[in-house]
Write a structure and sequence with these properties.
- With 67 residues, the protein is an alpha+beta fold.
- The protein has a domain of 41 residues: 3-Layer(aba) Sandwich (YefM-like fold), CATH 3.40.1620.
- 36% of the residues lie in helices and 22% in strands.
- It contains four helices and three strands; from the N terminus they run βααββαα.
- The chain has a three-stranded mixed sheet with strand order 1-2-3.
- The longest helix has 9 residues.
- It starts with a strand and ends with a helix.
- The model has no long low-confidence stretch (mean pLDDT 89).
């Protein structure tokens, strides 16, 4: 985790946001105390975004029985 003061963060906001986008966590400090933490967004699996979920027409055991 990268720790940065409020002053340094405000001078280079886009640089720190790029680091967060790259996967790093940035803690913002004021008077040596953490006041904020920037974390990268959780990566979602593409399967969660699919709105139509396929349903099997027959159970797997019945499908494999002829083999």
């Amino acid at each position: 985790m990268l720790k940065v003061t409020v002053t340094a963060f405000s001078k280079n906001v886009f640089g720190y946001l790029n680091k967060v986008a790259a996967g790093k966590t940035v803690a913002v400090l004021r008077n040596r105390r953490e006041i904020a933490r920037l974390v990268p967004p959780a990566r979602r699996d593409w399967r969660e975004r699919v709105s139509v979920k396929p349903l099997p027409l027959v159970p797997a055991e019945e499908l494999m029985a002829p083999m």
